[in-house]
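hi support,

uploading two proteins for the ticket. first:
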Amino acid sequence: MTGLIKPSRRSVLIAGSAALAAPFVATSARAADKRVAMVVKNLGNSYFAACANGAEEAAAELGGMEIIYTAPTKPTPEDQIAVIDSLIAQRVDGIIVSANDANALVPVGKKAAQRGIKMMSFDSAIAPEGRLVHLSASSTPLIGAKQVQMIGATLNYEGEVAILSAASTMTNQNAWIAAMKEEWKDPKYANMPLVSTVYGDDQDDKSYREMQSLVKAHPNLRGVISPTTIGIRAGAKAIMDDGLVGQVYITGLGLPSEMLAAVQAGACDSFAIWNPVEYGYSSTMIMGAILGGAATAEGATLSMGKKGETTVGAEGECIMGEPFEFNASNVADFAAIF
């Protein structure tokens, strides 16, 4: 695991158009001859500041690669393209992008390639035509399995469990639930049946009510999995408000800042999401490998430093790993970040 690095203070100056912010430049003690820009969706986002900290850590391990952390002031594709155009003019060696629009950034990605600049995406992909590879935080099978594993560990694999999802039409939610059910086939979950799946439509009020209804409908309910940040926080609030701490536990995909109180109260034993420090670190390590001449064709392997290796899949997609688990030992530190 990449260590937790709290975001440093960064002063950002607006140069010319309000859409384009002057980049923050960080260099390590040993300066190398490569300059890599991390272009995120917009400024003032603590999640991306944590990604930048991971990038700085990777840069130091790579011998002092220069990291340019920048973003538009508004999260629009037009403003992000202006930032990237500026970086192309500066002749950086590589660009790592969290795209505001997958297709709109393809032309500027092609322009970068024509100038010999390596372009990859992370967090939010550029369409394959506009970049070499994209690093996804995780995969559907890993995301689904992790959530069942967490509630299993909390309940010692015994007791009724329900799922509190977002909307029934959401593709990612349904895919994760299907992956959960695959994990549930393991014999170790034989005494931990799935009794219901309900939908809170990613609305706090509805998710809260659905959580209350689950408890009433299933008096022996012991656990709930909510693969949505809105559902897990609303469900946890219902557990605390209704005096069910210690009787019913919730897990799923959540944000540390929103789940801190639930973990401290005992309504949630553990939950998961991507670790942004590791995400920035792994992306930068991959860029370092690419700049060092590593192949990016399907089937090639790319180094992620301390995170191991990733294999390039179809359309250049790479996977960082399983979601990062948060619990009482680390949630407070990460809650200060995102």
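and the second one:
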Amino acid sequence: MVSDPHQHRNDADGAANVGLEDLVDLGAFPIQDPACGGYAAAVDAARAGLRAEGCAVLGGFVRPEAVARLNGEICERRHAIHYSTQVMNPYFHTALNPDYPADHPVNTFIERSSGFIPGDAWERGCATDVLFRAPEAARFIADCLEIEALHCYDDPLAGLTANICDPGQQFTWHFDTNDFAVTVLVQPADDGGMFEYVPQIRSATDEGFDAIAAVLAGGREQVRTLELRPGDLQIFRGRHSLHRVTRVGARSRPRHAAIFAYTLEPGVIGRVERTRQLFGRVLPEHEKAERQRVRSDPLLD
């Protein structure tokens, strides 16, 4: 059965005033019709990138006029941004670990300076929220990742967010705690703000410390740089691939990226330490989830 791309216009509370066809280039990415050839072609292209390097870029996924709308929503919420500057290692740790040498990646600390708009700043029915919660989008991304289904991340702060890198800021080399991330570049920087990554530099059983140390020391042999454009959807496996956003130029406009977080199971809540680092606060839901958490792998983080 084909989904109606207009279905998001008629929410019970009347909040939504935008439909999927207003947001996504459904000609190039017919995510509302998984039975058509265009859907299969888009999925196949994304799978090829994810299989080869853990990264897929769907150029122009969001329509140009929708990009402007998303950027307007980010600008309207700048008052809600939580900015933080930390000196951290790739695992989001900020303290020296005496179990490792001084020049080890665990004890290599680099500035992270950026801001996040938290999930509770977005009202239901705004364009960014509609795109995040569209079941067609979640199904399409799940197909690209070759998994059965995805659920919107239930974390009240980290489910739907936007990352802001203002002039002079950077999001340094790090790993994600989740297996994959979905982002839309909304506003690129005029100078800097490039997404760089090293594919599959570690695995669930091998931290890859030597290779990571080489990158942190300035090695570029395995580093990939993406030339992302406004409206590009990126699906990225960041659990095992080291990645960063380079420093935005001092006279540049800010870099804006919408972040759509999905999980394999419903009801997932983020970790207390990472939540506090990114948003400056935690909620009772985070404290409760932390007491019940079971780790999925033995990696440092």
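thanks. also noticed: The chain has one domain: 8-292.
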